[in-house]
Amino acid sequence: MSSLVSISYQDIEAALDWSSSSGPYENRALISRSTGTVYFQSTYDDFEEEEVPDDIEDQTRYITVPHKNDLDLGRNLVFQFIESEAPELEELVRNAFRHHGAYSKFKTIMERRGLLQKWYEYENAATRSALTSWAHENGFVISETQRGDA
Fold it and tell me: What is the pLDDT of residues 127-143, one digit of tens each?
């Protein structure tokens, strides 16, 4: 079996944020399977932060970072949190998610109930766990140091 390629948690978290920051297929982050280098792409022509390799579409060499919903880090996570921490708010939160701006409304509800910090901690822990599992399943190991750090 080949050894796992190292990638920093900050890099993979930034890749997830990029992939999840807009509509489906608008932004994507790809990771080199051999180096752990992250490349960002956008359907918007004016975005060119860095040059991407010519073979970026080669799925044997690069893997696309999933959207947070593909890792159950979106709405499903909200309801897991509500079920475990504030089941009495389930209907209120469900109503919020029936309308535009649901996540903002959810955070307002959490803030008013004194649960916002607890939500952030829950979300961060779930994100770290999901990214670590996804990375390992795809041949990467998460490191705490950034590329270039000694």
Answer: 999 999 999 999 999 99
Q: Are strands 62-64 and 27-32 parallel, antiparallel or unpaired?
A: antiparallel
**What tens digit of pLDDT does each residue of 72-111 get?**
999 999 999 999 999 999 999 999 999 999 999 999 999 9
**Strand pairing class (140-143; 62-64):** unpaired
Task: Determine contact, residues 78/93, Cβ cutoff 8 Å.
Answer: yes
Q: How many CB atoms lie within 10 A of CB 88?
A: 8
User: CA angle, 43 as apex, 104 and 49 as ends, to 5°?
Assistant: 90
Q: Of 68, 44, 56, give the one whose Cα is nearest residue 130.
A: 68
Predicted structure pTM score:
0.85
Nearest to 6 by CA among 148, 139, 150: 139
Read off the amino acid at residue 68. Answer: K
Number of H helices, E strands in the chain: 5, 5
